Amino acid sequence: MAERMSLRQLDYFVTAAEVGTMTAAAQLLYVSQSAVSAGIGELEHQLGVQLLVRAKAKGLTLTPAGRLFLPEARALLARSEELRLGMREAGRGLAGRLTIGCFSTLAPFLLPCVLEEFRTVCPDVTLDFVEGSLDELQDLLREGTCELALLYGADIQAGIDFDALYSVVPHVLLPQGHALAGAEAVRLAELAEHDMIMLDVPPSLRYFTEVLAAAGVSPRIRYSTESFETVRSLVARGAGYSLLIQRPALAVSYEGLGLQLRRIADDVVPLPVGLARLSGTRPTRRAAAFAAFCRERVAGAADATRRASPAAGAAVPLPRQRRGHRAAAGTGTVS
User: Fold this and answer.
1) Phi/psi of residue 146, each to 5°?
2) 154-157: Cβ within 8 A, 24+ apart
3) Does a structural domain hold residue 324?
């Protein structure tokens, strides 16, 4: 009978691949370096492939086989931890750690309320997060660094499933005293002769360019920046207008200069916001509970906000739960 690889061997391999040296892996795992090296060697022998290249000067490098095997090994370790916790949770509530991802410009508007309110639903689940661009978050999903990610439903790659929660539309951001600030809504064609400050974080550049192109406008981009607040500060200084989706509660820049937000009069294709996960994977109970929470609370809050004020901003204020009150989390799978 062929030898079976062990969870310990998988743990040695994943840790060594993440930290880059056998010595550092041994220190993290509280074992000897020889134990880590021997365990990974046995794993490679059982698989019949080399997973890591050892070089004294450069440390450890994943081979092509190692790069393929790493997310699978992470998934197996996560599943074993889920099984262990499931047995401990029998007759009790959910517990353990869940890491989610969040798109960088969404994070300040969504994460604080999500982190706080999910704790009232699943108080024994430790919710951590990572931020990043669309491409970075989808890479993190593939690597197993996070199990779910809150992001825009644009440029979703093959192998990633996306479940829309709500949709948003952009607004026009103008400096105080701008010629177009006197109207309640701005037609996109009116922006053609004005300089634009572009938020250059995918999918913003492509999406905003397409929104303007649909109205026959080729934007006169004066400045491009990856910083949401730099866009707002440049607009406040009169350097140009911008299109943005998220709306801070205060219409002022970091310098305290005023800004004018105006609704777009044209019909604009909405941009969905939702949950992404790796296709073909079975979610943990914690991830399933978080997905159910987002579908019920985040999507529900967005719908309520939109009904109350169709021109309201993209921030989604979740209704607060009373402390000590545990809402039903649900255990449906992520779809």
Assistant:
1) -130, 155
2) 154/202, 154/203, 154/206, 154/207, 154/271, 155/202, 155/203, 155/206, 156/276
3) no
Q: pTM higher than 0.90 for the full model? A: no
| Highest mean pLDDT out of 15-29, 55-69, 293-307 | 15-29
CA–CA distance, 119 with 116 (Å, rounded to integer): 5
Q: How far is CA 117 from CA 123, 302, 323, in A?
A: 10, 15, 10
Query: In degrees rounded to 5, what are phi and psi of residue 23?
Result: -60, -50
For residue 106, pLDDT over 90 is answered with yes
Residues 6 or more apart in contact with residue 7 via CB below 8 angstroms: 76, 77, 80
Report helix, strand or coil for 193: coil
Q: CA 125 to CA 183: how far, in whole Å? A: 48
Yes or no: say if 235 and 174 are a contact pair by the CB < 8 Å rule: yes
Whose CA is closest to 271, among 202, 203, 173, 169? 169
The domain in which residue 243 lies consists of: 170-269
Q: Which amino acid is at 241?
A: Y
Which CATH number is 123's domain given?
Answer: 3.40.190.10
Query: Could you tell me if 174 and 127 lie in one domain?
Result: no
Is 331 domain-assigned?
A: no
Q: How many domains is the chain partitioned into structurally?
A: 3
Per the rule left: phi > 0, alpha: psi between -120 and 50, beta: everything else, 198 is: beta
